[in-house]
Design goal:
Elements lengths: L1 H16 L24 E4 L5 E5 L2 E5 L4 E4 L26
Antiparallel strand pairs: 1-2, 2-3, 3-4
């Protein structure tokens, strides 16, 4: 019993004195910051570090500073049939 108590005390002291990770910083983005919609359906990161967000109003690319929105339009090269995107994935060549 004494041995178990000693292990428990040593474990608590180590857990308190060791910090698992540094303090985290979160920034919240919304449509006011450039997202096409506030509801995000899927998130991924490409090889260049860009973050991609799929919404029901297009796909949004975030480069760490600003958003670029890609939507289904007749005059662009994006092959989207509509703006509702529920899921994204990257293939072995790095294409979204």
């Amino acid at each position: 019993m004494m041995k178990k108590t000693l292990y428990l005390i040593v474990g608590l002291v180590c857990a308190i004195s060791i910090k698992a990770q540094p303090d985290c910083f979160f920034t919240h983005y919304s449509s006011e910051d450039g997202l096409s919609q506030n509801t995000i359906m899927s998130i991924l990161q490409d090889r260049k570090g860009n973050m991609w967000f799929s919404t029901w109003d297009g796909i949004n690319k975030f480069n760490g500073y600003s958003f670029t929105t890609y939507k289904a339009r007749l005059d662009n090269r994006i092959m989207l049939s509509h703006n509702r995107v529920d899921y994204m994935d990257v293939d072995k060549f790095g294409f979204l």
